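Replying to the earlier thread about multi-chain prediction with a worked example.

Input:
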Amino acid sequence: MKSPPFEYARAASIEEACELMHQHGDAAKIIAGGQSLVPMMAFRLLRPSWLIDINEIAALKFVAVETDAVRMGACTRQRVVARDDALAARVPLLRQALVCVGHTQTRNRGTVGGSLVHADPSAELPLVAQILEARLVLRAKSETRTLPAAEFFAGPMMTNLRADECLEEIQWPVWRERKTGSAFTEISRRHGDFAMVAAAAQIAVDDDGRCTRATFGVGGAAPAPVAFPELAQSLIGHRLDKTKSRAVAQEAAAALEPDSDIHASAAYRRHLAGVLAARVLLDAYDSARSAA
Amino acid sequence: MSEALYSIAVEVNGTQRVDRVSARTSLVDWLREYLHLTGTHVGCEHGICGACSVMLDGEPVRSCLMYAVQADGHRIVTVEGLARPDGQLSILQDSFCEAHGLQCGYCTPGMLIAAQALLDTNPRPTDEQIRDAIAGNLCRCTGYQQIVDAIALAAERMAKGAT
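Result:
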């Protein structure tokens, strides 16, 4: 349960981190909060020759609440994000999801960027990124590019981050509709564990209670978190009730092909996906309707 | 292969400690094996049990999920740092004794750190907030109820200004 030997470099700047990743490529891993990476190294699932530590780079730790988006540095601690009231007012799903992420001790150290790059299919923040269409700024020594979440996640624990790239910033779109609501829920064996299945939704309504904008998705039931843009689009112009939300959620669940594993069977995961998706759709809708 | 050693300077329980460590030495191993601060316990070594909780710059973290080299320049408080300067138990520690908040004692240092972190920011926690604060710490003896009682008792005593 001890990590294998490696060499360590503490990067003082994002430029230095990119330079080190350029030099070492596949042989190096970036360590942010380490809440997933360190256990994987202790289990010897990963044996990087180098760890590039980005924890001391102040430029990677910020939250900037802007009109159309909240931007945050990749090494921003989950605790900082969960406590930020201005952020919670603009992108409420982040706080709603972070309640389910690990425990106080892991959120104090764990980072938003680390969770996205780790890309566990059951993880909460990748699901939020997927349904909100977050944009990820990826920095390499000679080039910076921005990928939408849908193009970033590639499969279980897999992303399209190149070996020499460092996630620098995450941009979370802010919905400016006055009556917007969101909801996040999951089923796990114990609070704080990885979800067997998680679901998230965000909905905006007009004064008549008709949906004007909607998004929802499911985590833990596919190789990467899944959003359902077509089904969400089908809600536009409609009021949502139990029957409607169940019907849409069932259609979403039927489109999933979850795996069976030690934690849950495929059938149980699909069942949960339908139940939880219906629940978040209705909760998000109700909270949008009651928004001032 | 001889591993490279990295110089670190870490404030531990108010004292500056200087050492040279291999990169893979976890913070908890450094605290226990090199500083002989064996109050912090190693349970699962992969971030599940919470027995190794310490304060990093005032916030509780798992010391098995950090390398000692990463603590360079930072401030650590272990369970040894919770007692009063004269070595007497703190109100929180005494409350654990009073309320039978421990049996085997393995999880206790982690529970104390988690509880102290809670009381530092929330001196009058509800039972629910107490349970949430220790949700990342596993206890296999007490069923948690006496631990919750102990933390509530400590909060009550602190509010009364008990010494």
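Chain B has five helices and five strands.

Feel free to reuse this layout for your own posts.
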